[in-house]
Amino acid sequence: MCVGEIRSFIIPPFLAFGEKGYGRAVPPHATLLYDVLLVDLHNPKDEISVEILEVSEHCTRKSVIGDYIRYHYNGTFLNGATFDTSYQRNSTYNTYIGLGYVISGMDQGLQGVCVGERRRIIIPPHLAYGQHGAGKDIPGSAVLVFYIHVIDFHNPKDPVQVEVTIKPEHCNKTSEKDDVIEYHYNCSLLDGTVLFTSTDYEAVQSVVLGADKVIDGLDEALRGMCVGERRIAIVPPHLGHGERGAGDVPGSAVLRFELELLSLQKGVPEGYLFVWLEDSPAQLFQALDMNQDSEVLLEEFSDFIKQQVAKGRGRLKPVQDPEVVIGDMFKNQDRNSDGRITADELKLKAEEDKEKEKARHEEL
Predict the structure, then answer these.
(1) Which member of 105, 138, 172, 360 has the greatest number of CB atoms within 10 A?
(2) Rounded to whole angstroms, what are the CA distances from 35 to 3, 7, 12, 17, 202?
(3) What does the pLDDT look like over 11-48, one tens digit per residue?
(4) Model confidence pLDDT, tens digit, residues 348-363
């Protein structure tokens, strides 16, 4: 018989309960009529059966033991009756593969899948819920059929994957930590569901790299780019929004970013207003004191800093008004706030940081 087949059996008494019958229900010498529906069948030696229904043409990696997978499923019996489905909950089922978090047959059936793949997995009871079944919905010794759709998977050790799709022929500088950049992005799940895009905002997206203003994976993917370059970045959840997700981003979701770098301004480290790109003058105060009167006024200080920037010897903090930045630099050096800087007041920030660190250690 096949599963789902119905047969009628006519059984003569000598192949049934014979001349004695059976209790009050079956009299002696009774011919019996059975109508039989075969619900399912299995052999104790059966393994799982896997049928691939759909697979992506662009499959760069298949799932392995230890990966964390998100998938949708419909669970049915061999007769087609549904006992459970993730779609009704509008939420994927998420689990590690091959580590015993799900029934043995599903642990096996989820290995070797591609993102976006659809499979039918038939699991015999000894690799499912056995002779006792599970709860009210799954009877003992039931063969289970799962129709699964893999949304995404990742390994906790996965890095950000970056694919450069367009790169300008001429590129004099690339983005790095502390730079101020403007960029365009589209963010989606691996199944193509669009989450958000920078075109949703009136202003162009701007960020200081390394300032902890965007998720770690995006910050990493935006580094080393030329203006005009385009990339696709795949960000695993531990470098994205984690197991809890955020807003429309589901928990443990792998994110796909389409990125384009629109502009780039070289930056300065956090806490700095100006950095030297070459060695600073050996006698810095004498260089600042252009009229050699042993004091430096704001105008004198401003002219000197602007000269260094124009000659490519130094860099001011980007985005902000240069006059404001230079004014703040002057105030930092004018320690007694008398409107002039003397040799005793002048200190490079690097020297100040060393003194603070030394004082901290001495306190300890």
Answers:
(1) 105
(2) 14, 6, 15, 17, 71
(3) 999 999 999 999 999 999 999 999 999 989 999 999 99
(4) 776 766 666 665 655 5
Query: Quick one: which of 110, 129, 103 has its CA closest to 66?
Result: 110
Residue 166, judged by CB atoms within 10 A of its CB (0-12, 13-18, 19+), counts as exposed
Amino acid at 17: F
Q: Are 250 and 258 in contact (CB under 8 A)?
A: no
